[in-house]
Amino acid sequence: MTDLAQIRNFSIIAHIDHGKSTLADRLIQFTGGLSEREMSAQVLDNMDIEKERGITIKAQTVRLKYKGKDGVDYELNLMDTPGHVDFAYEVSRSLAACEGALLVVDAAQGVEAQTLANVYQSIEHDHEIVPVINKIDLPAADAEKVKAEIEEIIGLDASDAVLTSAKSGIGIEDVLDAVVARIPPPTGDRTAPLKAMLVDSWYDPYLGVVILVRVIDGVIKKGLQVKFMAGGTEHLIDRVGCFTPKIEHLDELGPGQIGFITAQIKEVAQAKVGDTITTVKQGATTALPGFKEVQPVVFCGLFPVDAADFEKLRESIGKLRLNDASFSFEMESSAALGFGFRCGFLGLLHLEIIQERLSREYDLDLITTAPSVVYRIQLRKSKTDDAREIMLHNPADYPDPSRIEQIDEPWIKATIYTPDEYLGSILKLCQDRRGIQTDLTYVGGRAQVSYELPLNEVVFDFYDRLKSISRGYASFDYEQIGLREGDLVKMSILVNNEPVDALSMIVHRGVAEERGRHMCERLKDLIPRHLFKIPIQAAIGGKVIARETIAAMRKDVTAKCYGGDISRKKKLLEKQKKGKARMREYGNVQIPQEAFIAALRMGEE
Ligand SMILES: Nc1nc2c(ncn2[C@@H]2O[C@H](COP(=O)(O)OP(=O)(O)OP(=O)(O)O)[C@@H](O)[C@H]2O)c(=O)[nH]1
Questions:
Q1: pLDDT tens digits, residue range 39-81?
Q2: How far is 320 from 356, CA to CA, in rounded Å?
Q3: SS3 labels along 204-242
Q4: How far is the CA of 426 from the centre of ligand 1 (A)?
Q5: Other residues' Cβ atoms within 10 Å of the Cβ of residue 511
Q6: Is residue 246 marked as binding?
Q7: Residue 31, annotated as binding a ligand
Q8: How far apart are CA 239 and CA 241, in angstroms?
Q9: Ligand 1 near 147 CB (within 6 A)
């Protein structure tokens, strides 16, 4: 039994790349969780894709044993949180499981938007926040300036900030001492009915679904029959343990403790983040506050390039879903693309991750249709149907315009933080995307600007554009603020006079013509020449709003190579053949796979 006074639960909040994972690894190493050799790879970012993209997707928690300066053995539970806006709810649950946080700020970069958003959340959870200024080894490091920024911008006292270089291992013990001294221990009642928060869940091929819990009151043990209050299911606990980061089996988890349980659960969808776990007998009657069902916000179709891969796609998607409850899918068929799936994601990064895993881990060539947000449409009464409301996930299902009374679209509030030299271009970008500025403040040489923006203007390439016009310096964070009426229309794209469903999209009437023109210009470059002339048109209803033509091909491509150079000729033919495999036929036109996403990038340069 661990005394509550010996426990500290904390998370690390940081902007992407400020060194959260490196610091976490150092803390593990210092407290002896792993040997030098085992430290070779970053421990907390344990998925391949995470490593390559350098981001943390799944929250993980490790228990560190640390003997404090007072000689007491402390149990420090360090919770790693995801670093991207798409996974904001997981972050909020992790924060709710802790009493404090380390705020890691890069000594050369200073405070950035993501830092702010997470700090405010942490403050909302009444956390004790310990500022850590990392990367003090960098020549451009300026700890004093960053301290001043933390005080000025966030309003936290930074005079006791811990200075570290996670990379070279400087200041690590100071961090541990600050955790013990400054972060309060948890409170809880061992004799009260069990209440444990489900912080995270993931699928492990050996253990099945693993659930990360934070016990609030009571005790959780092997053999206990428990109930998930929001999920409404009952399970028998078969394992209790923690990660050090290696798996350590335990007899129990008491109040204030964080660890994992397993209960022969097959799908993560049954273990919803934020749910309350209690005992079946004499359990708690009220659930913990803050449970929210996460809903996908961005939808798109995924189709196999080769129709014969459909079964493989179904299987692979099913497997991914086992491990990712926030991703949804249902079967879809399209006249042009055949059978595929309509999938829902938390955001564009989430979409890209799933798409990448399907192509990399499952070796599938996919066509992704235009991502779309969910619109709410009020339909008028017709001869055969009553007036009613529908949620539109797919532009292909856009109803007859004469029946549409009103369309509402989701809006977000975005907070952008940028050095002021890029402000002009950023304001223009937001303005072009129908943004409404709600706030603009300057601190030092930096600007913080808030905009309300329609989500459909953000889902394609807003983030990429923002990064490119600010050379990576601007940071972006957003939250959803509900639905608003919009003057929206469906824009269809016709290739050789045939509509291509996968390219149709819902756009605001005011920007439709410009978007249509861009799409046509891009497609003209992306679709190879054929033996005949191909018109490309953008249309709203029956009205063509933009048009380009791909001229007919005159010669055989190999005619360019003089007779002698056989190898070059072979290469070309080979290339053509390969290209063919990645194309879809539309009527008699072949459209390369890249065209589907590339055409959607609005590219305003
Ligand atoms: N020079 C220097 N580089 C560091 C230090 N700490 C981390 N880095 C580097 O900064 C980069 C980002 O570090 P990570 O620990 O992956 O950052 P992170 O905050 O976990 O990033 P996300 O997981 O994407 O949120 C890596 O290339 C690290 O090697 C430091 O103290 N000094």
A1: 555 555 454 544 444 334 344 789 999 999 999 999 999 987 7
A2: 12
A3: ECCCEEEEEEEEEECCEECCCEEEECCCCCEEECCEEEE
A4: 27
A5: 16
A6: no
A7: no
A8: 7
A9: no
